[in-house]
């Protein structure tokens, strides 16, 4: 197997080696090496100088040229550079018998050169370790992404543009993880598949590069959506999603098709399941670089807005605002895929840092799905809130409903901020429990979905929605007590349990907004706010910067 980017330059001790880029195919390279080696061979074996000294004749074994060797000795030759996995600093051996004939392998019945010493065992162990890390990391990411997708599709309260973009990104990452596992398990670990160069193997290569582009482009869409929310407040979700789907799924298909057509015209680049590097990769590399640079610009703009809002409208001191902006930056980096910017800066081959780079890159790439699942699903307050509401109906003794205070059954005005459970076990098993419950009670799931649809359709205000669930809350709405130490809304204000936009609401200005939000609740076109600054209808409220909210 000829290495992808390796040069076959000047050999050591007269070994004949050439640059593979000078030849159209590996067969042409081997043919040229053969004729160069045998050009000076004009004698028939056994070759002698004075009739008494016997030599083994010159031979070309397909990789190296073996010069005439004295009988009864062992010839040495530098390992070829162009064979993948060979260390050119090591020596290969070939035994010359007393009768002037080369050693013949007992199994093949042919002359045999010993290249076993050429194999870089340390490099092979590193490659196997890296492959195992990729397979293990992709497996963990795939499982967590599937669980995240099940959660996103299970709760109607999680239906919004931001979550829909998350669903597309998580779907592309899950598919990519699945097919990368197939690639490393059935292609990389099987040399016969690489040498056969079958159609399914090439198709898998094209599919993997398509999914790679889809991943980067949906990460770009995540940043673009956040940027549009900050810059263009009023934008129709359906229009935005159409553009996002076009960018995330259709545009990569066009680019990968162009890449496949160009690469298919290069004979040297269509071997070994297209595993070797090719100049056609620039058709994919340039769009990926563009998406990463654009995502970096989006991230800088988000941090700028956070710092501006914290310094101008927030009562928090500057160091606290800076910490929140820094935390937002660290959280958004895996969502935008900006960690991949570090991957091109790799150490030189043979450097002591190469081992750590290979292992670090494998962990960074394969565990991205796990990272985004934990940050934007398992640790998302909306998901925790929805899971708690669901589990409280089945395990009331274990999980307290987030609408209730645990000490007296009074309404909790900051229900999204406080996660109240009776043990950390409830939070740890919440995700698994909800999947088991839904799988065992499909009729209950369907009933809950229909009930939720009627619930949200018939009610105009969130307070009345809650009153359907807890009748005593409805009575409290009719006769609100005077404002006291607790944040109780006045008659002309909405009890904002779900999103609590910044601005005048329950209590004093700014007291119930302990997190960063740009412009709070944004009303859609054609709708107005009430006196407290809330959207008139629950369904008309678009959440903004929901992923970068931070509590005290």
TrEMBL record:
Domain G-protein coupled receptors family 2 profile: 36-122, 130-380
Gene Ontology cellular component terms for the protein in this record: plasma membrane
Any one of the GO BP annotations: adenylate cyclase-modulating G protein-coupled receptor signaling pathway
Annotated keywords: Cell membrane, G-protein coupled receptor, Glycoprotein, Membrane, Receptor, Transducer, Transmembrane, Transmembrane helix
CDD domains: 7tmB1_NPR_B4_insect-like, TIL
Protein's organism: Anopheles arabiensis
Pfam families in alphabetical order: 7tm_2 (PF00002), HRM (PF02793)
Similarity remark: Belongs to the G-protein coupled receptor 2 family.
Subcellular location: Cell membrane
InterPro entries named in the record: GPCR_2, GPCR_2-like_7TM, GPCR_2_extracell_dom_sf, GPCR_2_extracellular_dom, GPCR_2_secretin-like, GPCR_2_secretin-like_CS, Ser_inhib-like_sf
Membrane topology classification: Multi-pass membrane protein
Single annotated GO MF: G protein-coupled peptide receptor activity
Predominant place of localization: membrane
Stated name of the protein: Calcitonin receptor
SMART domains named among the record's database cross-references: HormR
């Amino acid at each position: 197997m000829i290495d992808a980017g390796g040069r076959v330059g000047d050999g050591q001790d007269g070994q004949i080696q050439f640059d593979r880029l000078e030849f159209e195919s590996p067969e042409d390279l081997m043919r040229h090496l053969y004729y160069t080696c045998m050009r000076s061979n004009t004698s028939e074996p056994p070759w002698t100088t004075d009739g008494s000294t016997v030599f083994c004749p010159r031979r070309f074994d397909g990789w190296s040229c073996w010069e005439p060797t004295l009988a009864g000795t062992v010839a040495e030759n530098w390992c070829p550079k162009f064979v993948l996995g060979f260390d050119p600093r090591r020596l290969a051996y070939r035994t010359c018998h007393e009768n002037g004939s080369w050693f013949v392998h007992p199994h093949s019945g042919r002359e045999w050169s010993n290249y076993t010493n050429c194999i870089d065992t340390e490099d092979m162990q590193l490659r196997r370790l890296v492959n195992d890390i990729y397979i293990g990391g992709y497996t963990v990411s795939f499982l967590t992404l599937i669980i995240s997708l099940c959660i996103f599709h299970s709760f109607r309260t999680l239906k919004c543009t931001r979550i829909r973009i998350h669903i597309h990104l998580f779907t592309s990452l899950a598919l990519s993880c699945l097919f990368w596992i197939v690639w490393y398990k059935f292609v990389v670990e099987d040399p016969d598949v690489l040498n056969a160069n079958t159609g399914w193997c090439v198709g898998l290569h094209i599919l993997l590069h398509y999914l790679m582009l889809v991943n980067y482009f949906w990460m770009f869409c995540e940043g673009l959506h956040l940027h549009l929310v900050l810059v263009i407040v009023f934008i129709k979700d359906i229009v935005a999603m159409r553009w996002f789907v076009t960018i995330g799924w259709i545009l990569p298909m066009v680019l990968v098709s162009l890449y496949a057509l160009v690469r298919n015209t290069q004979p040297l680049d269509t071997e070994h399941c297209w595993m070797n590097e090719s100049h056609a990769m620039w058709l994919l590399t340039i769009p990926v670089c563009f998406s990463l640079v654009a995502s970096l610009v989006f991230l800088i703009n988000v941090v700028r807005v956070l710092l501006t809002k914290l310094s101008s409208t927030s009562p928090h001191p500057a160091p606290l605002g800076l910490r929140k902006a820094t935390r937002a930056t660290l959280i958004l980096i895996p969502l935008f895929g900006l960690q991949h910017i570090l991957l091109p800066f790799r150490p030189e081959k043979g450097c002591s840092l190469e081992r750590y780079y290979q292992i670090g890159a494998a962990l960074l790439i394969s565990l991205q799905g796990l990272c985004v699942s934990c940050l934007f699903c398992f640790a998302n307050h909306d998901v925790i809130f929805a899971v708690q509401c669901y589990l409280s109906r089945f395990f009331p003794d274990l999980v307290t409903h987030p609408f209730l205070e645990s000490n007296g059954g009074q309404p909790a005005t900051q229900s999204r901020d406080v996660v109240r459970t009776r043990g950390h076990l409830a939070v740890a098993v919440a995700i698994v429990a909800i999947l088991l419950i839904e799988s065992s009670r499909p009729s209950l799931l369907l009933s809950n979905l229909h009930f939720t649809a009627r619930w949200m359709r018939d009610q105009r205000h969130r307070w009345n929605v809650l009153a359907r669930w807890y009748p005593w809350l409805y009575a409290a709405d009719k006769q609100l007590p005077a404002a006291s130490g607790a944040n109780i809304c006045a008659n002309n204000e909405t009890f904002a349990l779900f999103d609590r936009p910044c601005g005048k609401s329950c209590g004093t200005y700014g007291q119930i907004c302990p997190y960063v939000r740009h412009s709070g609740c944004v009303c859609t076109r054609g709708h107005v706010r009430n006196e407290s600054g809330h959207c008139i209808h629950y369904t008309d409220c678009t959440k903004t910067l929901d992923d970068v909210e931070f509590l005290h």
